[in-house]
Amino acid sequence: MRFIKLSLVAVAAALMLSALAVFPQRLCFDGGGKYTFYCGTSSSDCREITSYGTAAVDRLTLKDICGESVELDNFDLLAFLKKYKAKIEFTEEGEDYVNYYCTADLPYSVQLYGKTINLHICVRGEKAKAGTPIIFGGY
Description:
two-stranded antiparallel sheet; seven-stranded antiparallel sheet; alpha+beta; 3 helices
């Protein structure tokens, strides 16, 4: 009987460690503080669900995720592009920001100006917001 209890505890511990290792890999982005999930079937019915440090766990409770975004401080554009194997397709510049629309190794995508886009980065000074397929709701 004792052996069975110890075996069950060992299996439970192994499952818990495996879960902790797998959950963070399910997120599109790592790092950052404010993580947002876009839920719905399209951008028109999109709901924003924001997490602060609990995104990996929160993701498990959400349905109909159609995108994700993260806010980043001390942003290094070139390092970020390299990390996600991203290629800039086009940019848009505003008064205090630059939007980069990219193709990358990410699961969500939209068609913009005849291009398949799955990474949108908005840079403002030293900070940025990255979203896949795009940043819904602005930044």
